Amino acid sequence: MRLLRRLQTLFRLGRVDAELHEEMEFHRAMKKRELERSGLSEKDVTGAVARAMGNMTGAREEARGVWLPGWAESLVQDSVYAVRNLRRQPGFAVVAIGTLAAAIGLNTSVFTVFAAAALRPWAVREPGRVVSVYSFATHVPQGANNAMGFSIAESRFLDSNSKSCDGLVATRHSYVRFGSDKTGRSSNAMIVTGNYFRVLGVGMERGRAFLREEDLAPVPQAVTILSYPAWQNRLGGDPEIVGKQIRLDDVPFTVVGVASRDFTGTASLRADAWIPFASLRLLRPLDGSVPDLLEKPDYCCSAVAARLRPGVTRAQARTELELLSRRFHMEHSLEPDAILLTDTAMVSHPGSKGKITVMFSLMFAGVFLVLLLACANVGNLLIARAAARQREIATRLSIGASRARIIRQLLTESLVLATAAGLLGVGIAYILPPYVLARAVDEPPNLRFEPDMYVMAFSVALSAGASVLFGLAPALHATRVSVAGAMKGQAFGSR
Question: Where exactly are the structural domains of the chain?
Answer without folding.
Answer: 2-67, 77-120+354-487, 127-344
